# Entry
Amino acid sequence: RKEVEQDPGPFNVPEGATVAFNCTYSNSASQSFFWYRQDCRKEPKLLMSVYSSGNEDGRFTAQLNRASQYISLLIRDSKLSDSATYLCVVRGGRRALTFGSGTRLQVQP
Amino acid sequence: DAGVIQSPRHEVTEMGQEVTLRCKPISGHDYLFWYRQTMMRGLELLIYFNNNVPIDDSGMPEDRFSAKMPNASFSTLKIQPSEPRDSAVYFCASRPSGQGRSYNEQFFGPGTRLTVL
# Structure
């Protein structure tokens, strides 16, 4: 079983739609959680950290459920520029970040 | 401010040749990471350094791979001999040390796209 699992997609949604991605992780001792965004043929960049109480950054909302070991990302009012791959990322212990394989989002006009 | 710098950006080589990838982290960052990304396996951590010392190299696939960090501003990842299955994008990333949320973000370089024929 992979340490971090994501639905690879692609998720094809129209502009203005709300879309949600989920991610599960296997290590219950994981301490920190993030969503990174990666554009085609570019490097990953931090989108937002995920806090236990849930957090929001503009149109983006992240949630963490430690009991079920899953993380979610909600994007409201999707824009064409949101088209990218979204990587779920987990860190625990001495190990550095563990990346999921990513969920591809394509927002269509 | 300059971000993480990697060179070369693209490398095409033949099987059996030695390949050296280079990385300059962001000044002041104490952690440096090497990742490999392929379609099949996604983004995998190969090795990371703290204050120039290798901390975890459990992701290095085999003895053909080696990494060094001779000083705080330079690191290399070497593959010798290279094989076609090493074809991938290799990313270097860095972050500062410290506790708290502001130290969580890793900053990635643009990557080196390696093709081994």
Summary: Chain A is about 0% helix and 55% strand. Chain A has a mean pLDDT of 92. Residues 29 and 92 of chain A are 6 Å apart (CA to CA). The interface with chain B takes residues 32, 34, 42-46, 49, 87, 91, 94-102 of chain A (CB under 8 Å).
